[in-house]
Amino acid sequence: MMPTSRNELLSLLSEACEIEHSLACAYLYAAFSLKKETEDRPKWRDQQITQYWAGQIYFVASQEMLHLAQAWNLLAAIGGTPYFMHPVFPQPKSYWPLPAALTLQSFCLETVERFLQWEAPVESTLRPGFIHWEHSPTEQDLAFRSVGELYELIAHGIEAMPEADLFIGNPDLQIGPDLADFPDLVAVYDKRSALEAIRRVQFQGEGIHDDREDSHFGIFHEMRIELNRMLGANPHFQPAYPTLQNPATRERAGANLITHPAARQAMTLFNNIYVLTIRILGWVFGPGSPGQPQTRGFARASIGAMPVILKPLGEALARMPSGDGTHTAGASFAMQRHVPLPHDADDALRLVSERIDELIVAARELQQREDIDQDFSWLAGRLEWMLGVVHGEYSSTQKGGHDSKGDQGK
Hints:
The chain is an all-alpha fold. Helix content is about 50%, strand content about 0%.
């Protein structure tokens, strides 16, 4: 059954947002876990291949964030608002029509196999016995079996509805690559631009065909071949730190508790920064107007914080002890209760500034701990840079407080 109303389209697009956001988190978790360096000179080749894999996974994760932003533009165009929540990890197969549960796991062959199942096109042989799934957020019979089919449903619904009735969003609020650093982002005004946006998403990863090496499926397919080759040559090859699967700071079903005090503090700080960047980006795609000076600063700060702050902090977490004596910690991407920023630009700026100030204090407290072997001296300075960007004091390429110490943030 195809969507026949605005409400059904809004629900399907919101579900697409949840999936894209969750996939991005799972990919980032695996990339964080990959080892960046080794003191054993004969393993130099291993170091190079693991860094190549990390770069590929970071690239795929960045495209999932692009897809999330694209879904936000689609939502805004038909009268919706940005949806950026995601369920806690792990997420069972019954929650979405994905052939494997969404879970946070260190990079390994099992993880890559799961990536392939998530990104596999509909006709792929990776989908044997795949069951037709009939759940949607509205509990209607809007059935789909994959992310690709979800976008097909959305496209068919857009094509079937009268253009003048469907596209009621304010066109001045559409966000393009000139404002947000997503080069392939499409501003959506009508059927043509909406279908082009969907086509680009499918082309990059959630499409129908599995013969493109530069698609997400193609990238992970080649990664699996190379990983199998290296494991065949050396069964003891361990490209990643043994991060705890689905880490958490609070007990809940399916999660594993981080008990090391310093790791818990670093993990909480990561989550707080992560949530703030998503809230800021959601404001850019929601009430923020491209003509307001705060909008550009917010866009630069939220997108720039991902590689400058979240990436090195997530990698540091993957090296910290979890407290169980066997595994290391990791980023849980836990989201607190959804508190959107106020529509008024000045009020939004005040709330963001206050929150970044609090995070700077927390970063300095983490830096002063004596029970960790990670260097967090860079973190407060990067947050100060973020504060400057939201106030328009830096360009997106200037890193206030960026020191050249060590390998942090590279």
